[in-house]
């Protein structure tokens, strides 16, 4: 069985590194991108099972990324990472197709649990 592929998009390098360090030992193949444009470039050449994307980023924010990614890879689960959580942002992200969102700062256990749930849901749907 192939390892699930995860893309982490965040303009904060520490978040990208932390996510990769948490998820890779769990058996996931993790790629990282510093912004939505670079994330879209990677998503055009690689089929991801899950994308973790920051909400607020320069060049292309998380909401715009979700809209574009869902057009090309509708089965990919998307989890928003944000330090700017409001009910409105959460509702909008979910209406655009996000599976869930995680508030920053988050613990490794929270990240692993939400990622595992998203991938289990994806597997059940296929």
Write a compact overview of the structure shown.
The protein has five helices and five strands; from the N terminus they run βαβαβαβαβα. The protein has 126 residues and is an alpha/beta fold. Helix 2 (36-45) packs parallel to helix 3 (62-72).
Key descriptive features of the protein:
alpha/beta; Rossmann fold; 5 helices; 5 strands
Low-confidence stretches: none
Side-by-side strand order of the widest sheet: 2-1-3-4-5
Classified in CATH, the superfamily is Response regulator
Q: What CATH architecture do you see?
A: 3-Layer(aba) Sandwich
Number of domains: 1
Q: DSSP helix count?
A: 5
Predict the CATH topology: Rossmann fold
Description:
There is one protein chain. The chain is α/β, with parallel strands linked by helices and 126 residues long. It is built from five helices and five strands, in the order E-H-E-H-E-H-E-H-E-H. It has helices at 13-23, 36-45, 62-72, 87-95, 108-125; strands spanning 5-9, 29-33, 50-54, 77-82, 100-103. The mean pLDDT is 92.
């Amino acid at each position: 069985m192939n390892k699930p592929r995860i893309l982490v998009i965040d303009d904060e390098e520490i978040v990208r590194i932390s996510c990769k360090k948490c998820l890779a030992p769990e058996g996931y193949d993790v790629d990282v991108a510093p912004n939505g444009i670079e994330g879209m470039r990677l998503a055009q050449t690689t089929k991801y099972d899950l994308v973790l994307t920051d909400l607020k980023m320069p060049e292309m924010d998380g909401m715009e990324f979700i809209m574009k990614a869902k057009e090309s890879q509708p089965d990919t689960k998307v989890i928003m990472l944000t330090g700017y959580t409001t009910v409105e942002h959460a509702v909008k992200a979910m209406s655009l197709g996000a599976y869930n969102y995680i508030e920053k700062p988050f613990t490794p256990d929270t990240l692993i649990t939400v990622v595992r749930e998203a991938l289990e849901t994806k597997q059940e749907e296929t």
